[in-house]
Amino acid sequence: MASPIADLTYRNYDGPLEPPVNRWWAIAKMSMRLSTKKRGFWVWSTFSCFWYGILLIIFYVNDTLAAANPMGQQVSLLKGLVWKDQFLNAFSESQLFLFILALLTGAGSIANDNRAKALLVYLSKPCTKLDYVIGKWLGIFIPITLVTTVPAVVFYLYCLMSYRSYGFWSQDPWLFVQLMGMVLIPGTLYASITLAISSLFEQGRLAGAVFAGVYFISYFVTLLMELVHTQMTMGGNEVPPIVNNLFYASIDGLQIGMLKIILHTNGSPKFPIQLGQMSTRMQVPEPSTFLFIPLFLVICAGSVLLAWSQIRAVEVVR
Amino acid sequence: MRFLKPGETNRRNAKYSHQSVSVAIIQNLVVRYGNFTALSGLTCEIPEGCTGLLGPNGAGKTTLIKTILGFVKPTSGSATVLGFDIQTAGASIRQKVGLMPEQDCHIPGTTAVQFVAYAGELAGMPGDQAVRRAHEVLDYCGLGEARYRNVETYSTGMKQRIKLAQALVHGPKLLLLDEPTNGLDPAGRIEMLELVRSVSHGKGLSVLVSSHLLPDIERVCDRVIVVMQGQLRAQGTIRDLKKIEGRPVDVELRENSPRFVQAMMDKGAVVQPPKRSTYRIQMPGLPEEIAKIAMQAAKESGAQIRGYIVAERSLEDAFLEAISAK
User: Cβ of B106 and A317 within 8 Å?
Assistant: First the structure.
């Protein structure tokens, strides 16, 4: 009787090999796989949608009550609502959660590789430094962008189907296109900054701590400027431009500024309740497009360049 | 076997390159780190099969490996690996070469299967093939049972094995092993050397083992390249390297016999003082002819011959001679 043949000795691989270019997608896939394996990623992603949920409940209840009232639509809160500002507000509320997601997905991306000397594995394969940086950047950018995109699109579609009569479509027909630009901002900024910080360290936790420090210290500046702006506006004083500019001098502020430019709005109060002229004036105005967009791009590109310059397969002792 | 003087190129040793096909040809390679010259006009050929790269610490072994892979740009000189120029085709070289680095390295947060399959994907394997091959290679490297464990929980021996697995996964034509037995206990060391030996013989895979552990090299390699201060000092088969000039023979007697020594000297032999009861004898002629003369001398002197071999030195002696050659 014939027995099975089992060759347990080494056999060389003779299957297909793709050309040795563009390995960044393999790196991005693995980075995303490792990020989405963390339970925290899904928990914080869910939390980041909470403001859309609150808005949906408010809109639904309001619309239902208005339908029961003969004069309903005329007195509804939804009437006169600036719809694009609701997306801005929802994003603004989700910023802390997006920061946590960036911390989870990005802080250790290069730092942990430095600790495990993984660069020797990457760069001994047909991967270039550019493949590595692009792959790692996409590994942070794609998850964060998806987390901002999915609830925004769902909310948009719900409003489009339910609230056209309240001017959802007529107010801003290009809103969807603007939204598609808006959702790219947090992923771009977080991917760039976390990658740069991560490349400077050999411990993911240390890189995370530094990133958190930069985030909260700069956030404090934004909060302070918001307070000054509010006080001066309420006092009927003219707010100096430096206050408005410094409001955007943080990781959160940079994103809010870019979103205001893309949506072309100064924003409106968070709760969809009209509080009169004063509440509108209390919003920090949209920054200068010509100064702010180049600044944003320089920060992102500079961060990626910093990360790229830090990557070495071997330590060269001079 | 002859040793090269510092700075001398390998042209005179070209006879070795004709004996087998070279997987790498290195010519006048100079690598500098600032003011420090790590490789100083190195010229050598790495033949097919298993080759040991020998040299003391700081000799330039690891720099040579890094240069072959394109991690370090040479200041001058040229080299081709598997027919690809190291200056222009680094990615193509790295696709056909596997590196097992000296340091522990892994992808954090991955299991062994994920890590090895990922290494395969990075080398250009399609995802499904990479996973299948990862299982195969892990089995081969003796990590089949631990394949779903996080690599960070592995012992030193297991980490060495997984480094070998990730280097092998894409079926390289040349495997570069940098100190493959570092940190292994004696049993682990023997197992690793057996693995290296089995992949490097009859499997169409050439291996370059960089080490300063001579017994390891002797166990797995057929040929060696000795480098010192960034220059080639010797290269050839281990058998050639161990040969002693004049081809003396060692004759082991049952007990020391001054009469045997005298009889041999009368026949024109030079006899060295005995080590225990073994005499090293040097005289013109083939070993078979010397054997006949020794038998005759033993008969005349009443000595009893217990053993007769062509004398050779240890690899350690040969290595020390190579690196001290002026």
Answer: no
Amino acid identity for residue A277 in this structure: Q
**Chain B residue with minimum CA distance to A11:** B203
* Complex ipTM value: 0.87
Please give the pLDDT value at position B324.
80
Compute chain B's Rg from CA coordinates: 24
Chain A residues touching residue B34 (CB < 8 angstroms): 318
Q: Does A39 touch chain B (CB under 8 A)?
A: no
Q: What is the pLDDT of residues A95-111, one digit of tens each?
A: 999 999 999 999 999 99
Q: Do B66 and A115 touch (CB under 8 A)?
A: no
- Report which listed range, A44-48, A167-171, B55-59, is most confident: A44-48
Report how far residue B308's alpha carbon sits from residue B290's, in angstroms, rounded to the nearest whole number.
10
CB contact under 8 A, A17 and B108: no
Q: How confident is the model at residue B11 (pLDDT cuts 50, 70, 90)?
A: very low
List CB contacts (< 8 A) between A11 and chain B. 136, 203
Shortest Cα–Cα distance, B14 to chain A (Å):
30
Residues on chain B touching A13 (C-beta within 8 angstroms): 125, 129, 133, 169-171
Closest CA to A59 of A91, A89, A81, A92: A81
Kindly determine whether residue A10 and residue B198, on different chains, have CB atoms separated by under 8 Å. yes
Instruction: Write out chain B residues lying below 8 Å of A112, CB-based.
Output: 108-109
Q: What secondary structure, in 3-state letters, does chain B show?
A: CCCCCCCCCCHHHHHHHHHCCEEEEEEEEEEEECCEEEEEEEEEEEECCEEEEECCCCCCHHHHHHHHHCCCCCCEEEEEECCEECCCCHHHHHHHEEEECCCCCCCCCCEHHHHHHHHHHHHCCCHHHHHHHHHHHHHHCCCHHHCCCEHHHCCHHHHHHHHHHHHHCCCCCEEEEECCCCCCCHHHHHHHHHHHHHHHCCCCCEEEEEECCHHHHHHHCCEEEEEECCEEEEEEEHHHHHECCCCCEEEEECCCCHHHHHHHHHCCCEECCCECCEEEEECCCCHHHHHHHHHHHHHHHCCCEEEEEECECCHHHHHHHHHHCC
Contact across the interface for A108 and B129, Cβ inside 8 Å = no
Residue B67 CB-half CA count within 13 A: 28
Nearest chain B CA: its distance from A265 CA (Å): 43
Residue B122 CB neighbours (<10 A): 30
